[in-house]
Write a structure and sequence with these properties.
- This protein has 209 residues and is mainly β.
- The chain is built from 2 helices and 18 strands.
- Strands 1, 2, 3, 4, 5, 6, 7, 8, 9, 10, 11, 12 and 13 form a 13-stranded mixed β-sheet that branches. A 3-stranded mixed β-sheet has the order 15-18-17, with helices on one face.
- The mean pLDDT is 93.
């Protein structure tokens, strides 16, 4: 098995044995065989990656994560499957994918997204307009994202460390888009919409109310 492990603030582009390509986001782990099996093309993902799968109707492409499996024949899509995050997702740019959950199966087409809550194991399908992987070009997008998931994403994206003030409740849901913004610009935006304040000391961020 081959392994790709990215660190905070790092992205890596990878070409698989079948010609499929993926961009691996920060703090992610991908495992794949040096050559695929005869009946399928299976890889393992912990984290986030944007896929462009080479078409091959006789050899399904399978992505295994800690919470669900994804099966495709040839398409482009984004998978976000960080096990520490409350929200995971699969967002399809073009083509179709099949997602196998512990107790359900559903299919997505272009500009559709599966949102999966890793705590409650609830999921739903929704339309998703715009780019499916803004992070590939240095952008961030949050859609009713729990503030602690936002903090983890900022840690991965900007290679920083974020702590919350103990004794205070942080249950805010964050929405917004940021294109090539600095960390402080994102924090200012969060402060404006939620009232959560911050201090920065080197790469240490402290959030408080």
């Amino acid at each position: 098995m081959q392994e790709i492990i990215t660190t905070a603030g790092q992205k890596q582009t990878l070409t698989l044995p079948d010609g499929s390509t993926l961009v691996v986001n920060a703090c992610s782990h991908v495992r794949y065989p040096q050559s695929f099996a005869k009946d399928n093309r299976q890889i393992y993902l912990e984290g986030e990656a944007y896929f462009q799968v080479a078409p091959n109707k006789n050899h399904p492409f399978i992505i295994t994560t800690s919470k669900f499996d994804i099966k495709v024949l040839g398409t482009s899509f984004n998978v976000k499957a960080y096990p520490e995050d409350e929200n995971n997702s699969v967002t399809v740019e073009s083509g179709k994918v099949q997602i196998d959950l512990p107790e359900a199966m559903l299919r997505l087409s272009g500009q559709e997204e599966l949102a999966f809550n890793t705590v409650t194991e609830e999921f739903y399908k929704q339309r998703k307009e715009g780019e499916v992987s803004p992070w590939v070009k240095g952008g961030l997008r949050f859609t009713r994202t729990p503030i602690r998931d936002v903090a983890r994403e900022l840690e991965r994206f900007y290679n920083c460390h974020i702590t919350f003030n103990q004794g205070q409740e942080f249950n805010n849901l964050i929405s917004g888009e940021h294109e090539n913004s600095s960390l402080e610009a994102v924090l200012r935006s969060i402060e404006y919409i939620t009232g959560i304040r911050y201090t920065i000391t080197g790469n240490q961020i402290f959030l408080y109310k």
